[in-house]
């Protein structure tokens, strides 16, 4: 009897099969198609020539790509530096209980319900000096505002538009983290006579670390792939002031129909996002570890 083994039921894998099929259909197969295109020169649907890493080398030498990458990094870092602190401040100011909490949550989440192309259209009208509230007000105050003619104005308008659209997501995540903190922590801090800053520094911020990590990764990935809002608002202009990596890729693939270089750049784009997310994740993990060690000391 001791030598017999209990049969293992493998039927549970059938529950995972739909997920595997969905991932294969939506991610793995398209990725393999892009890899296939990136090493071939597609002359016609019936005629293709293997070129190896030629497209990768050509894309990496493209100066427009370097400028778009630098522009994209600046934008994503600005998004994180503005939206994370602003979202935390908004979450801290929101009521914790009662009907006011429900009302404020709905109001804060309203901008998240607006489709991306509609957001671009709203700000396109909002920034006009003839009929837009923002543009007309700035013009009356003496500012020569023009998001279609001034590169700096266009860049700042896209940034403010993204802050308006996505800061509520950070606020909702931070709010959920705050609500998960037991009242016993606040009671102990009150007994010790801790200040509001001390409560935030040593209780609220460490307890929000998990949700803030999610917020940082989500906002970085989304801002690094931004396309619709600046395309609708400025079309990538004036000049190339708001031409980010996604618009550069679309121009290559759709506008110029250079499928080989576009596929090679898609893979480079993918690995850039993975690299930055890996660095951000490990950096935030190291900060959390350092905070825990300080708490033990």
Which overall shape is indicated by the principal axes computed on the Cα atoms? globular
- CATH architecture label name: Orthogonal Bundle
How can the largest sheet be summarized?
Answer: 2 strands, antiparallel
Strand order of the largest sheet: 1-2
Number of domains: 1
Identify the CATH class.
Mainly Alpha
Task: Please estimate the helix content.
Answer: over 70%
The CATH superfamily is known as MetI-like
User: What do we call the CATH topology?
Assistant: MetI-like fold
How far apart, in Å, are the first and last alpha carbons?
54 Å
**Rounded to an integer, what's the Rg over CA atoms?**
25 Å
Q: What number is the mean pLDDT?
A: 84
**Structural class computed from helices and strand pairing:** mainly alpha
Number of helices: 13
SS strand fraction: under 5%
Which stretches are low in confidence, meaning pLDDT under 50 for 5 or more residues running? none
Order of helices and strands: HEEHHHHHHHHHHHH
Number of strands: 2
Overview of this protein structure:
72% of the residues lie in helices and 3% in strands. It has 297 residues and is mainly alpha-helical. The protein has a single domain, classed as MetI-like (MetI-like fold), CATH 1.10.3720.10. The radius of gyration is 25 Å and the shape is globular.
């Amino acid at each position: 009897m001791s030598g017999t083994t209990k049969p293992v039921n493998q039927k549970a894998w059938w529950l995972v099969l739909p997920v595997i099929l969905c991932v294969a259909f939506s991610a793995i197969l398209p990725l393999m198609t892009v890899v296939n295109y990136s090493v071939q020169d597609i002359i016609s649907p019936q005629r293709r020539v293997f070129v190896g890493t030629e497209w990768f080398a050509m894309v990496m030498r493209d100066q427009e790509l370097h400028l778009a990458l630098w522009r994209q990094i600046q934008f994503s870092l600005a998004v994180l530096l503005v939206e994370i602190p602003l979202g935390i401040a908004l979450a801290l100011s929101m009521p914790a209980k009662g009907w006011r909490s429900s009302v404020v949550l709905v109001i804060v989440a309203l901008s998240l319900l607006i489709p991306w192309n509609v957001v671009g259209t709203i700000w396109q009208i909002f920034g006009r000096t003839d009929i837009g509230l923002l543009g007309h007000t700035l013009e009356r105050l003496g500012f020569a505002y023009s998001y279609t003619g001034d590169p700096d104005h266009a860049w700042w308008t896209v940034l403010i538009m993204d802050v308006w659209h996505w800061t509520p997501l950070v606020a909702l995540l931070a709010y959920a983290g705050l609500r998960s903190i037991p009242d016993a922590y606040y009671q102990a801090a009150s007994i010790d006579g801790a200040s509001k800053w001390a409560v935030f520094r040593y209780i609220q911020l460490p307890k929000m670390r998990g949700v803030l990590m999610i917020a940082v990764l989500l906002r970085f990935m989304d801002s690094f792939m931004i396309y619709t809002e600046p395309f609708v608002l400025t079309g990538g202009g004036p000049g190339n002031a708001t031409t980010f990596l996604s618009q550069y890729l679309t121009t290559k693939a759709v506008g110029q129909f250079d499928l080989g270089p576009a596929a090679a750049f898609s893979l480079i784009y993918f690995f850039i996002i993975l690299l930055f997310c890996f660095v951000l994740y490990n950096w935030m993990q190291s900060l959390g570890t350092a905070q825990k060690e300080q708490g033990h000391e």
